[in-house]
(R)-specific enoyl-CoA hydratase
Amino acid sequence: MQSTGMLNKISKALSAMNLLCYVLHLHVNHISSRIFTSEDVLEYSKVSHDSNPLHFDSESARNAGFEDRLVHGMLVAALFPKIISSHFPGAIYVSQSLHFRLPIYIGEEIVGEVEATNIREQKNRYLVKFKTACFKNGAIVIDGEAMAILPAPAVEQANTSA
């Protein structure tokens, strides 16, 4: 008798997890692209107080071994919470690891991708692990992992738009 009850609980949990995986599009990439401008770099510098000449002076950038002025890596990484919050309103971004692989120059098109790789239910919300990556011309320039808490309403909203 106990084994039947346990099987029912397991079956319900698996059904809920399958639905949740469908709703959150587990292993489906969400994408956004952007071309970062000199104005973007200037505005980010004002907020971050990062006035490294590599971002503002072409000669300094070339002397340091780069082709031209660089976009701040953290500015580019801001694509990740933008993508997550646009698909899951109310998401709470709790962590992000980043690896900066290649330089990003002003005027280059960058494509950001976010993929949900793990989902764990906690009370009335979900802790979701995401694989994050930015590309230029198909090459990875930034990658890492993010964690976000999604409230139940965000999951329900994703379910109605899926």
User: Anything to note?
Assistant: The mean pLDDT is 85. Residues 2-23 form the longest helix (22 residues). The beta strands are 29-35, 92-100, 109-122, 125-136, 139-151.
